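Inverse folding, one chain.
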């Protein structure tokens, strides 16, 4: 039921949610929602880079044909589920379909702003209608199905038709809360507040965000991975890559009209103050020792974050109130000296799994991060994925592990350089990836550092969300025959992007244009193939948890096709073909007996079937039966775990009908911790597969010679 849980009305506003995870009583006046001269200049720069130069890997002319694609992308970003615009609106907008190219070239961006203003009007109408529906009662005994996925549905032909769609949507929201045990007065209060906030969130979007969204419609018309970033978006991206920022060391979240502390980072200035707890509200922010306290109640969360962040060593004062005290409770001013904050939760980490008589080290790598600014400065101590993994490998050596699994599940990529450097920890000199630029030139990027950080057995665990740099690393390990690839087929992204700072071009003083992330090259495996659309196929596959047609590079209409070039000059270390049938056989036998793995597979098949329907019953008895069945399944599994002496996560996965901003912070944290405690059968099975491979090769010189002709022993898979 996970997809169904996401059906609350806030999920129906892609632009509002993507651009402004906010809460505010203030709105952006419609009179200010007009394109600026600076935006016209920035848009023209993007045009010159994407369509007027040889810099882009796929340089498409900005003409009527591309304008039509931009138009469709923009409408989808605003109303992809077709819940706001009427068919008559689309008929009026169609005049813009082949003129958006001229709007960008001529720096006259009124059309996308006109469309957005109509969107505002329609959101207001829908919000008013939804709030009005809460005054009536619903009959949940009727056999009625709600089509919640309207991507392929036609635009509503009339207000009456749109009213019916929204009646069903509101009815679903009411039913979710009713099934969760809420009384009707509570339900009406919760939903009325929720719907009112939808309108507020949309109305607080600023002109620069409307512009960013429109330019992203242009970028995605070129290829799926080209996008425009406003100055604020670009800074947030850079912070995520360097895993550091300067501030107080806390994660903030919106709760009703307040920005609250969600988590406090260990060792951070916020924690050291001893005066801040998760759930505390931020009422006002003051700069320095004596700067005026600025009331931030009702502000956008990103604006509050901007005020709290600041240079290392500077002082910020926060007027804080405990959530338990209520809106009229006491509050206090907390003085904090800002510091450099390391985002360790997003960094590489390790653990050890004992399985099948072997001790297997696991390194989880969430992203291929690199502090680009420090690297450009030539700093000696640059934070990167490779330096962190190297350190963890040294730790695992000291702990005498027999093999290492690099867990790249859900790793969407990052720095191309880091993918090359990380591969170099496992091979001693040689090509890693081939890169073809827009002019057709092919460059072979190689590991040029002698030595190997880990010479022993290894495996790489991937899934459908492993993309880009993850695929470069996994493909290189596979092509060399250096280690086993285990898991699901990867995303299939085989293109290279670079960040272009638009502020390097002439501009008015004080104006910032932002940055353009654009595709400039395509990468190829050292065997000559590409991961583009083809992905990396594991040696030992797990059942697919996601339909490749629904998620992955192949789902994009304008993705680059698969192609091939000549192989690079490299020496293959080995091949696992001689033992993969046995490894797969052992995996199948073991996983069939593994309760957690079997339950995972059962859940995968269940959710696949659920997602295919795209509808949900609005009959209370039907939904109650589904809910009870899920609860019974969970309880039965926990009982089995308990009987076998296994850990029970204690996770209640029944839908509570609430949005994140409506839940108490403590409840959210408890749920997340429960999820973290869930068994990881895929990781455990991956460790077991690697242990099997070690055991097969250990002491079997004929087989070892067949798998690794260059390797003198089973414990050394590469020299």
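Residues assigned per position:
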């Amino acid at each position: 039921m996970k997809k169904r849980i996401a059906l609350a009305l806030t999920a129906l506003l892609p632009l509002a949610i993507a651009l402004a995870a906010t809460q505010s009583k203030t709105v952006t006046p419609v009179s200010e929602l007009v394109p600026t001269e600076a935006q016209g200049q920035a848009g023209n720069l993007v045009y010159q880079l994407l369509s007027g130069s040889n810099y882009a890997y796929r340089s498409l002319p900005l003409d009527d044909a591309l304008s039509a694609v931009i138009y469709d992308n923009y409408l989808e970003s605003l109303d992809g589920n077709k819940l706001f615009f009427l068919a008559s609106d689309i008929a009026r907008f169609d005049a813009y379909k082949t003129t958006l190219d001229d709007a960008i070239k001529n720096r006259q961006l009124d059309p996308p702003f006109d469309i957005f203003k109509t969107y505002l009007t329609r959101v207001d109408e829908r919000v008013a209608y939804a709030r009005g529906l809460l005054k009536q009662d619903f009959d949940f005994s009727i056999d009625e199905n709600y089509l919640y996925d309207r991507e392929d549905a036609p635009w509503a032909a009339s207000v009456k038709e749109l009213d019916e769609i929204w009646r069903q949507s509101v009815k679903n929201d009411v039913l979710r809360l009713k099934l969760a045990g809420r009384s009707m007065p509570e339900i009406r209060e919760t939903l009325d507040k929720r719907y009112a906030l939808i309108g507020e969130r949309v109305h607080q979007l600023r002109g620069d965000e409307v512009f960013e969204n429109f330019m992203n419609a242009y970028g995605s018309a070129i290829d799926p991975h080209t996008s425009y970033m406003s100055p604020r978006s670009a800074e947030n991206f850079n912070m995520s890559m360097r895993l550091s920022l300067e501030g107080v060391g806390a994660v903030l979240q919106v709760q009703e009209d307040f920005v609250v502390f969600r988590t406090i980072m260990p060792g951070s200035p916020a924690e050291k103050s001893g005066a801040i707890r998760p759930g505390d509200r931020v009422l006002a922010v003051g700069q320095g020792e004596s700067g005026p306290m600025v009331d931030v109640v009702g502000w956008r969360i990103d604006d509050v974050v901007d005020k709290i962040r600041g240079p290392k060593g500077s002082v910020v004062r926060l007027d804080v109130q405990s959530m338990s005290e209520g809106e009229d409770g006491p509050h206090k001013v907390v003085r904090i000296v800002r510091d450099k904050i390391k985002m360790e939760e997003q960094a590489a980490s390790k653990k050890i799994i004992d399985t099948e008589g072997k001790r297997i080290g696991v390194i989880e790598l969430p992203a291929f991060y690199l502090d680009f600014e420090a690297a450009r400065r030539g700093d000696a101590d640059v934070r990167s994925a490779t330096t962190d993994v190297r350190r963890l490998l040294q730790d695992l050596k000291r702990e005498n592990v027999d093999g290492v699994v690099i867990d790249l599940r859900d790793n969407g990529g990052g720095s191309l350089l880091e993918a090359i450097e990380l591969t170099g920890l496992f091979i001693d000199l040689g090509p890693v990836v081939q890169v073809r630029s827009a002019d057709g030139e092919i460059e072979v990027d190689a590991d040029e550092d002698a030595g190997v950080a880990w010479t022993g057995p290894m495996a790489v665990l991937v899934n459908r969300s492993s993309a880009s740099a993850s695929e470069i690393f996994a493909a290189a390990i596979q092509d060399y025959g250096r280690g086993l690839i285990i898991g699901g087929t990867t995303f299939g992204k085989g293109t290279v992007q670079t960040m272009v700072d638009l502020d390097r071009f002439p501009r008015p003083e004080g104006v910032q244009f932002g940055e353009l992330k654009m595709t400039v090259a395509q990468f190829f495996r050292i065997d000559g193939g590409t991961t583009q659309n083809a992905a990396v196929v594991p040696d030992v596959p797990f059942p697919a948890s996601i339909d490749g047609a629904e998620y992955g590079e192949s789902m994009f209409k304008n993705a680059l096709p698969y192609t091939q070039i000549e192989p690079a000059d490299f020496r293959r270390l080995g091949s696992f073909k001689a033992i993969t049938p046995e490894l797969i056989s052992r995996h199948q036998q073991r996983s069939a007996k593994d309760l957690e793995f079997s339950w995972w597979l059962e859940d995968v098949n269940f959710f696949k079937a659920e997602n295919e329907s795209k509808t949900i019953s609005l009959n209370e008895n039907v939904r109650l039966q589904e809910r009870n069945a899920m609860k019974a399944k969970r309880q039965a599994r926990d009982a089995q775990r308990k009987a076998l002496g296994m850990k029970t996560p204690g996770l209640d996965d029944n839908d509570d009908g609430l949005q994140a901003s409506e839940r108490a912070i403590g409840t959210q944290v408890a749920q997340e911790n429960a999820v973290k405690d869930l068994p990881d059968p895929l990781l455990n099975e991956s460790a077991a597969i690697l242990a099997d491979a070690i055991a097969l090769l250990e002491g079997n010189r004929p087989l070892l010679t067949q798998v690794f002709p260059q390797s003198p022993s089973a414990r050394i898979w590469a020299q």
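The two ends are 49 Å apart (CA to CA). Confidence is low (pLDDT under 50) at residues 1-24.
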